[in-house]
Specification:
The complex is a heterodimer of chains A (about 110) and B (about 110).
Chain A (H helix, E strand, L loop, with lengths): L3 E4 L2 E4 L5 E7 L5 E7 L6 E8 L2 E4 L6 E3 L9 E3 L8 E8 L9 E2 L3 E5 L1
Parallel strand pairs in A: 2-11
Antiparallel strand pairs in A: 1-3, 3-8, 4-5, 4-9, 5-6, 7-8, 9-10, 9-11
Chain B lengths: L4 E3 L2 E5 L4 E6 L5 E9 L6 E6 L5 E4 L2 E6 L4 E6 L8 E9 L5 E3 L3 E6 L1
Parallel strand pairs in B: 2-11
Antiparallel strand pairs in B: 1-3, 3-8, 4-5, 4-9, 6-7, 7-8, 9-10, 9-11
The chains are: A mainly beta (about 110), B mainly beta (about 110).
Chain lengths: ~110, ~110
């Protein structure tokens, strides 16, 4: 049981490049979400999904796209990377949006945009 | 309270001390309060999810209480051990949505 798997763990991009951060879970969780973590700030929600085919914006969605074609996968796409997107990105999932077990987090992707 | 606020920002205690942290959150339209433990170089792990006013939960030496009317939760650690060193995050979930709002965390260091 791998839980939530994020790839890559580290990435350096040049300004303007695009890339996809991968997130996969094997727990049959319906709810998946992406957060970014910046120094001095709490985890901030970028996008989330309550099931395959359904996505919605979080607190800081600009510059990011998501899709949810399967229950297992929830990739985050950076369309044109900017230095302001330098951050640590976490994917999290739960069985339901209101799970009493809390969220399971991946190990994070540290992204640097130069 | 408009956002989720945690205090103190950081805390150094000696092994064996008991300690507690505070999480303040908007009490309007409240649904749930989450606590997570986040060790360095790892990912956050869920400790508790509480929904009812007056709720108390316990896991080993760690316990938490919830007051939804005044919008606060306390996390207690009894007899702190070095392995308790971590950042403790709380997050509030409002009714009608699917979003958690996180505080900035309390960083605990337990020294021998």
């Amino acid at each position: 049981n791998a839980g939530v798997t994020q790839t890559p763990k580290f990435q350096v991009l040049k300004t303007g490049q695009s890339m996809t951060l991968q997130c996969a879970q094997d727990m049959n969780h319906e709810y998946m979400s992406w957060y970014r973590q910046d120094p001095g700030m709490g985890l901030r929600l970028i996008h989330y999904s309550v099931g395959a085919g359904i996505t919605d914006q979080g607190e800081v969605p600009n510059g990011y796209n998501v899709s949810r074609s399967t229950t297992e996968d929830f990739p985050l796409r950076l369309l044109s990377a900017a230095p302001s997107q330098t951050s640590v990105y976490f994917c999290a999932s739960s069985y339901t949006p209101r799970s009493n077990y809390g969220y399971t987090f991946g190990s994070g992707t540290r992204l640097t945009v130069v | 309270i408009l956002n989720v606020e945690q205090s103190p920002q950081s805390l150094h205690v000696q092994e064996g001390d008991s300690t507690n942290f505070t999480c303040s959150f908007p009490s309007s339209n409240f649904y749930a309060l989450h606590w997570y433990r986040w060790e360095t170089a790892k990912s956050p792990e869920a400790l508790f999810v509480m929904t009812l006013n007056g709720d108390e939960k316990k896991k080993g030496r760690i316990s938490a209480t919830l007051n939804t009317k005044e919008g606060y939760s306390y996390l207690y650690i009894k007899g702190s051990q070095p392995e308790d060193s971590a950042t403790y995050l709380c997050a509030s979930e409002k009714g009608g949505g699917n979003k958690l709002t996180f505080g900035t965390g309390t960083q605990l260091k337990v020294e021998l």
